[in-house]
């Protein structure tokens, strides 16, 4: 019997070692992931990835005996709730796919808050009774209005990194607050001879950063006069504005007067004396 177990273990290690020759070897977390959802994700990603769930000791043994010494860097990321994922695709492409397959999940006792969890002021569907005390116990200010309980002030009931207690999990369930997402979570990966640890994929945050960077690049390009499809409209608008300034300096035409808001208090300003010619010339020169 012992010999048979050893043979099975040996074959398993050999299979894992062979898979580790692929482009991406990733340690993923399947903690708290229901079996049905796990199988559904595997089915959706079939043909793109292969996922192997095995004992921690077996995975570590395979990593150390794969013939690729750099894979040892993944050992510290392996625990009892992790699995190995193999793919011929890019590590970060696969990580993005895994993020897309996450599903909303209610809070459970013992989980760690992924960000600040806030309850907004307003009416709830809860009726007066024990829930008034339950809301107060987590720091909320309840009040009965029109036969239902209302929360009187916005309140952060759990800060990022806090442990979710029984009371918090219960209140979030009652208020239909779903602060978590569950799925196969990328943890660390090996690709092109390097180990990438603590993988975090934030598509929304990345898009915000790209948009901000694009805006700064456009402004800088317009200032430098770099013309392309993205800057040409801004450069022409800037040139048009400069043309107006030059025309007014040459002709002596006054600056445009801002529109007067009806019923606004009248403001009388002393008429400025005509600028000396040398000041006009200086202003013209500053445009070039």
List keywords for this structure.
single chain, 12 strands, alpha+beta, five-stranded antiparallel beta sheet, disordered C terminus, Molybdopterin biosynthesis moea protein, domain 2, Alpha-Beta Plaits, flat, 9 helices, 17% strand, 288 residues
Provide a compact summary of the structure:
The chain is 40% helix and 17% strand.
How does this structure look, described?
With 288 residues, the chain is α+β, with helices and mostly antiparallel strands. The chain folds into 3 domains: 2-102 and 183-201, Ribosomal protein L10, N-terminal RNA-binding domain (Alpha-Beta Plaits), CATH 3.30.70; 117-180, Alpha-Beta Complex (Molybdopterin biosynthesis moea protein, domain 2); 208-285, no CATH class. It is 40% helix and 17% strand. The strands form 4 sheets. It has a 5-stranded antiparallel β-sheet, with helices on one face. α1 crosses α3 (56-64). The protein is flat, with a radius of gyration of 32 Å. Mean pLDDT is 82; it is low at 264-288.
State the helicity in percent bands. Answer: 25-40%
- Helix/strand structural class: alpha+beta
Write down the overall geometry. Answer: flat
CATH superfamily of the largest domain: Ribosomal protein L10, N-terminal RNA-binding domain
Q: Write the CATH architecture name of the largest domain.
A: 2-Layer Sandwich
Alpha carbon gyration radius: 32 Å
Distance between the termini: 90 Å
Mean pLDDT over the full residue set: 82
Biggest sheet statistics: 5 strands, antiparallel
Q: What would CATH call the class of the largest domain?
A: Alpha Beta
The DSSP helix count reads 9
Number of strands: 12
**Topology as a string of helices (H) and strands (E):** HEHEHEHEEEHEEEHEEEHHH
């Amino acid at each position: 019997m012992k010999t048979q177990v050893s043979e099975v273990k040996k074959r398993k290690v050999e299979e894992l070692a062979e898979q580790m020759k692929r482009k991406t070897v990733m340690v993923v977390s399947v903690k708290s992931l229901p079996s049905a959802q796990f199988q559904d994700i595997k089915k959706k990603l079939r043909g793109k990835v292969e996922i192997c769930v095995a004992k921690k000791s077996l995975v570590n043994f395979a990593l150390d005996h794969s013939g690729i010494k750099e894979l040892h860097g993944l050992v510290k990321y392996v625990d009892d709730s992790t699995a190995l994922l193999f793919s011929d695709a890019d590590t970060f492409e696969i990580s993005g796919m895994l993020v897309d397959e996450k599903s909303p999940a209610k809070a459970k006792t013992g989980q760690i808050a992924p960000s600040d969890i806030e309850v907004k002021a307003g009416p709830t569907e809860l009726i007066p009774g024990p829930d008034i005390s339950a809301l107060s116990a987590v720091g909320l200010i309840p009040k009965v209005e029109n036969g239902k309980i209302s929360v009187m002030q916005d309140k952060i009931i759990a800060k990022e990194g806090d442990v979710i207690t029984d009371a918090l999990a219960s209140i979030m369930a009652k208020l239909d607050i779903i602060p978590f997402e569950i799925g196969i979570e990328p943890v660390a990966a090996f690709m092109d001879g390097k180990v990438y640890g603590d993988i975090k994929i934030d598509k929304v945050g990345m898009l915000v950063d790209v948009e901000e960077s694009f805006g700064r690049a456009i402004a800088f390009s317009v200032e430098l006069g770099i013309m392309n499809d993205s800057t040409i409209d801004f450069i022409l608008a800037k040139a048009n504005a400069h043309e107006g300034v030059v025309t007014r300096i040459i002709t002596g035409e006054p600056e445009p007067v801002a529109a007067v808001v009806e019923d606004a208090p009248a403001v009388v300003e002393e008429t400025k004396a005509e600028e000396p010619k040398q000041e006009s010339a200086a202003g013209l020169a500053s445009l070039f």
